[in-house]
Amino acid sequence: MLVSAAVCPHPPVLVPEMAGEAAPELDALRAACDEAVGRLRGAGALIAVGGGPETRAYGAGAYASLRPYGLGWTSPSGPGAGAEALPLSLTIGRWLLERQGLAAGARYQAVGFDTEPEACAALGRELAESAERVALLVMGDGSACRSEKAPGYLDVRARPHDEGVARALGTADAAALAALDPGISRDVQAAGRAAWQVLAGAVGGAALTGELLADEAPYGVGYFAAAWSRRVG
């Protein structure tokens, strides 16, 4: 049963050492992610979900590394022979979990970026049913087309797309996330669409409350941080 969820973005520059002198620009977003992740304490099972090349679970020996992005950070520091590297989304997820002392025992699940909504929902239900109390850390960026300087240049559909995502995250509206159009999300380069729809499937018919902690687009890319929790009473 899903009892709580945190939603965070996964740009490498979220890590201060990656951002360098620009690190203060993301201080507020970083703090919002810390707040959201910190609220995951107390669940029986903690699962990080993020986009990747394919849908698959990673074993206990998987490791996170920012070496491909120019930073000598790897966790755990000495991965065993044959250990698999996590995709970027889950690498940043592990970094966030470590900041809150929650990395030990966490599970890691990738969902293919182009996975259809129905398959995302089915995966979410499976994760929610995997333990009596499940918390999800859902990693996903919004559109990358919010301005002419954005990685995907300007697409007028990007802002309305992200505004809809922000509303859904702020109100724990799983139906709105489930209804995101994969084609439009792909066009505006919203890397989080599949992971958000896994979250929507995990909710099922449960009543959750949501709080939007951050909604920013400093580089023309939508970054959100949100916290969901099961209603009491």
Commentary on this structure:
By secondary structure, the chain is an alpha/beta fold. The chain has a single domain, classed as LigB-like (Protocatechuate 4,5-dioxygenase, Chain B). Helix content is about 35%, strand content about 20%. It is built from eight helices and nine strands. The strands form two sheets. A seven-stranded mixed β-sheet has the order 3-6-2-7-1-9-8, sandwiched between helices. Strands 4-5 form a two-stranded antiparallel sheet. α4 crosses α8 (about 195-205). It is globular.
Concise structural overview:
The chain has 233 residues and is α/β, with parallel strands linked by helices. 33% of the residues lie in helices and 22% in strands.
Descriptors for this entry?
233 residues, alpha/beta, Protocatechuate 4,5-dioxygenase, Chain B, 7-stranded mixed sheet, 9 strands, 33% helix, 22% strand, globular
* Number of continuous helical runs: 8
What fraction strand?
15-25%
Biggest sheet, spatial arrangement of strands: 3-6-2-7-1-9-8
Low-confidence stretches: none
What is the correct CATH architecture? Answer: 3-Layer(aba) Sandwich
- Average per-residue pLDDT, rounded, comes to 95
CATH class: Alpha Beta
Structure class: alpha/beta
What is the topological layout?
Blueprint: E1 2-8, H1 16-19, H2 27-38, E2 45-52, E3 56-58, E4 64-65, E5 74-75, H3 88-99, E6 107-112, H4 117-128, E7 134-139, H5 158-171, H6 174-178, H7 182-187, H8 193-203, E8 208-216, E9 223-230
Parallel strand pairs: 1-7, 2-6, 2-7
Antiparallel strand pairs: 1-9, 3-6, 4-5, 8-9
